[in-house]
Specification:
Length: about 325
């Protein structure tokens, strides 16, 4: 299969190009930045460039985007140009080229303010049915791009699946207080309980989406590590998260203690990936329980793919944890 991957110089784009190429697919990487995984250097908003890169493609994996860390460094218009106009350009080129499937990488940040419950309320249970309330231009443009996927699917029949991915970036947390209190690996393992996914599982979700797109037509899916929690846990998670985690994993503190780690005191939202597992046939592996298993064995809780891709950063100038390495 010939697959166009946008954002090939980024975390996910590189991982997709690496993995799909190793599986024998003919992969074309498109990015504004040159890299070992980029075959066409250009913008997703450049129609001529996109049209040329799309030649002969059977599928598109659209991972290129301006991200949340760019909100403080790029004007809103740049987000519209890349995230909205770029997505429309790709969709229209895909229709014109007769592409058979289109997978759009969105984000759980699209839910925005819906992720934060009121003071004293239980943690929020987040499914695809939660209505997004964008918090910033990043969320607003990602939601708009999702709607363009739905529009083009309805108007032209292009199978389009939207994957709302949770955190998978390797950079440190953007909150100074969190970075000061918890070791970075501690933060990321904790987040696997409710708001993080390993890069290897993100890639496998895209692979499943490619396989299922034609049969499904259009769908939005949360891509996050499988949570051990249920809706019945939400009030307790907000009040005393370590106690709830201990009920599920009685020895987690014994695993954490030698590392100097601790659990977050409160958890305010939980992502539910049940629809992606049921409809895409996705079987994510790198959850909190698996991370504990690897830590007990003295192994890294991250997948080999995540380690191979490493950290890239988002800015060439110093912007805390998001500076380009």
């Amino acid at each position: 299969m010939r697959i166009l991957v946008t954002g090939s110089a980024g975390h996910l784009g590189e991982a997709l190009v690496r993995s799909l190429s190793e599986e024998g697919h003919d992969v074309v990487g498109l990015d504004v930045l040159d890299s070992p995984w980029t075959h066409v250097v250009g913008s997703v908003a450049d129609r001529a460039c996109v049209r040329a890169a799309m030649t002969g493609a059977d599928a598109v994996l659209h991972a290129a985007t301006l991200h949340k860390p760019h909100v403080g460094s790029h004007p809103r218009q740049a987000f519209v140009d890349v995230n909205v106009t770029g997505t429309l350009t790709l969709l229209e080129a895909a229709v014109a080229a007769g592409v058979g499937r289109f997978v759009y990488t969105s984000t759980t940040s699209a839910f925005g303010r819906a992720l934060t419950p009121a003071e004293g309320a239980p943690a929020a249970w987040i499914t695809e049915d939660v209505v997004p309330v964008p918090r910033n231009v990043y969320g607003a443009t990602k939601t708009a791009a999702e709607d363009l996927c739905l529009l083009v699917h309805r108007d032209h029949g292009l199978p389009c699946l939207v994957l709302r991915t949770s955190r998978f970036f390797p950079e440190g947390d953007d909150r100074d207080g969190v970075r000061a209190r918890y070791p970075d690996a501690n933060v990321k393992v904790n987040e696997l309980l409710y708001r993080r996914v390993d890069l290897e599982d993100v890639v496998s979700a895209h692979r499943c989406a490619l396989e299922r797109a034609a049969a499904i037509g259009f769908g939005r899916y949360i891509v996050s590590a499988t949570t051990p929690f249920t809706r019945a846990d939400l009030a307790d998670l907000r009040a005393d998260a370590p106690a709830v985690v201990c009920e599920r994993f009685p020895d987690f503190e014994d695993v954490f203690a030698p590392l100097g780690w601790s659990m977050f005191e409160t958890i305010e939202r939980v992502y539910d990936n049940a629809r992606a597992r049921a409809e895409l046939g996705w079987t994510p592996r790198w959850d909190f329980g698996f991370a504990l298993q690897r830590l007990r064995a003295g192994e890294d809780p991250r997948s080999p793919l995540a380690l191979a891709v490493g950290a890239k950063g988002y800015h060439a100038v110093s912007t805390g944890p998001y500076t380009v390495r």
